[in-house]
Each structure stands twice: as C-alpha cells, then as structure tokens.
C-alpha cells in the first residue's frame, strides 16, 4: 500500500516503475506524532526526510517573540527542514506536527544513499525542484497580491484548512494578524 501511495504522489513529477518505490519504501520506517509535537527543533540538523500519510505539519521560524509559519504540508507530500537536509547544517527552522499525524521517514544517510542510484538522483532532483518552484511562487504571491487574494489561493489549495490548522498559523503563513484573517473570512462569508 505504501508503495502505491508514494508512486501516486510522485507520478505527477516523475512516473517511475513500482519497483523503484518498493525499494524506496524499504528504507522507510513508520512514525507517529501528536498534535503540536516538535518533529525537528530549531538550531538542529535535519536527520530525516518525512512523507505524510495522514495529518499535517508546518515549518516555522522564530521571529521576535513568536514563531512565524513559513509552510504547510499535508497528506501525500514530503515534509522536513529541506534546507538543513541538503546543507547538512543546523538551521533556525522548526518543524511541528499540526495534527495527530502518521508519517514515514527515511534517515538522511539512507536518503543520500538512494542518490547513488540514477532513479534516486531523479527523485531527489524532482523533490528539490518542486520545493524551489513552490517557494518562488509563494514569494511572488506575497509581494504582488493582497492578503485576501493569498487567502483565496490557500483555500483553493487546501479547501478544509480551517478545520485542520489553527487560525494563528494560517494568519502567520499569510503574513497577517489573526484579527485580519477573521475580518477577511467574515467579508468572504457575506459575499457568498
């Protein structure tokens, strides 16, 4: 079952044969996190590459007196401090389970061992490219769109996000206060 989930999730980027995913899954171990459990602490090195089976996670950065949400990850997507995984250095980023979550993880050592195989190189390259494109798009949206427009895009990407993620994290991700997010949500509700 895990191999089919992995294949289906990555097919949009790279259609690899099922035996590739069977080998990848052989390096993985299941792990569970409670809601609000820290997966990777700030100022530490990332030790694992995670793939979310059920649940969600967020990537946070400490700024002034609280954490700012930089990204969300949900089912059928990868999640980790990817910058730390690639550089093998500690970063200021913290990764937290935002819901009770079921994931699989592969150690950074095994992640890099997979890269010695041509298909493993392709998987790593595709993961890095997809992450880069998503971050660039997020930066463009932050610089060129209003909070209302960015919120609509977020709702389109994750339709039930409000049932799953705390409003303070959504607001932080959008770069606004929770009060501003409440106002935007009320204005949207009156339009529909």
UniProtKB/TrEMBL annotation:
Q: Tell me the superkingdom of the source.
A: Bacteria
- Which InterPro entries has this protein been placed in? cNMP-bd_dom (IPR000595), cNMP-bd_dom_sf (IPR018490), RmlC-like_jellyroll (IPR014710)
Please give the SUPFAM superfamilies that the UniProt record associates with this protein: cAMP-binding domain-like (SSF51206)
Pfam family for this entry, one: cNMP_binding
Residues annotated as domain Cyclic nucleotide-binding: 32-116
Protein name per its UniProtKB record: Cyclic nucleotide-binding domain-containing protein
Q: Which organism is it from?
A: Sphingobacterium pedocola
């Amino acid at each position: 079952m895990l191999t089919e989930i992995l294949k289906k999730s990555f097919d949009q980027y790279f259609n690899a044969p099922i035996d590739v995913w069977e080998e990848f899954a052989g390096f993985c171990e299941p792990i569970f996190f409670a809601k609000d459990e820290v997966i990777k602490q700030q100022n530490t090195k990332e030790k694992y590459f995670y793939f979310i089976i059920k649940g969600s996670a967020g990537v946070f950065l400490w700024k002034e007196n609280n954490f700012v949400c930089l990204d969300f990850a949900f089912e059928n997507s990868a999640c980790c401090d990817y910058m730390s995984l690639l550089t093998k250095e500690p970063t200021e980023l913290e990764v937290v389970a935002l819901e009770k979550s079921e994931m699989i993880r592969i150690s950074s050592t095994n992640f890099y061992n997979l890269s010695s195989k041509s298909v493993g190189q392709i998987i790593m390259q595709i993961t890095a490219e997809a992450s880069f494109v998503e971050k660039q798009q997020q930066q463009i949206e932050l610089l060129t769109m209003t909070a209302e427009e960015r919120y609509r895009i977020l709702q389109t990407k994750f339709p039930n996000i409000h049932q799953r993620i705390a409003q303070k994290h959504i607001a932080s991700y959008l770069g606004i206060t929770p009060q501003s997010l409440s106002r935007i949500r009320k204005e949207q509700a009156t339009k529909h």
